[in-house]
User: Fold this.
Amino acid sequence: MLKVDINRLVRNIHKLAKGLGDVRIMGFCGTHEYVISYYGIRSLMPENVELIAGPGCPVCVVPAAYIDECIKLALDGIRVFTYGDMYRVPGTEMSLSRAKAEGADVKIVYSFLDAIRLAKDGKESVFFGVGFETTQPSVASRLVHKDVPRNLKIISAYRLTPPIMRYILDEVRDIAIDGIIAPGHVSTIIGSNAWKFLAEDYGLPVVVAGFEPEDVLIAIFEILRQIKFNDVKLFNEYSRVVRSEGNIKAWRYVGKVFDVVSAGWRGIGIVKESGLELKNSYAEYDARLEYGLDFKGGRDVAPGCRCADIILGRAKPTECPLFMRVCNPSSPKGPCMVSSEGTCAIWARYGNLNKIRVKTKDFKT
Ligand code: SF4
Assistant:
């Protein structure tokens, strides 16, 4: 537990923000968006500081074609292991959960180890591997240690976080970002130094932050301080967990098992060197080769859904015409409304600012 005087911190945020003009801070991570929404942190911000949600929902960014292929396999009787977060994400025609209701063999697991344990029964199975850098080492290390039964194949829909941040800054010209809160969990694996490029190549303040509300407020304070005093750099606020070099051993496993490839992001398109595919030396586990999957086609975006814009920080959920009208957590039309890290689902559950608002004048200096 961090010991921080929140009132003082918020007062100092207001002091720093004075005279800065509009400042837009992107929180990369879905969990940061949860903290910001759940604790009403937006309502504590000065008028000129906007917190925008970024692309950090790994389930939201997997193209629909992957879900479609998993459904086809599962309807053919091949058991598909999936994380619960992916279970209800819509593919082109349906979700895995709907497919299961129609007889497909889909099983929710909490980890790759669960899938290994269950696959020891010998049934032909596929693990739907989804996630950012945090989840990749658990698969890689089991493959390196030859712990994976031959009847268990892997679909790698793994994605990497720094390349999508570069993509947003290079390719998405119509949004302004003045500072970035980098993901804490991911950085435990890749290290805080992985985010240095944001300061060095783009001149942006960047803070690797933890997941207490205090962590997020400190990150906002530090970004504003860097802007105010023109002292742009990488700051690791989460040093109680994240090392500058990350978890070298875990990351080495990933390098042994996967090749970095250009990969599709749902509704966005191909992002350079942003995905992982199994190396040839692990081809016997590659579901892509075993079943001839190409992950092409599929409908990523339902009519009216603005998930891709929301993932890129171009739009807020409330700017989607379907938000809480026809799309809600019980009946999601896009992936951002499903996962606990999806911005629309978070705003649907916790975004009622009227209920959690603390008047900003309470913190005026
Ligand atoms: Fe897509 Fe629903 Fe979010 Fe709109 S509210 S962007 S339809 S997930």
In short: The chain has 16 helices and eleven strands. The domain at 27-350 is CATH 3.40.50.11740 (Rossmann fold).
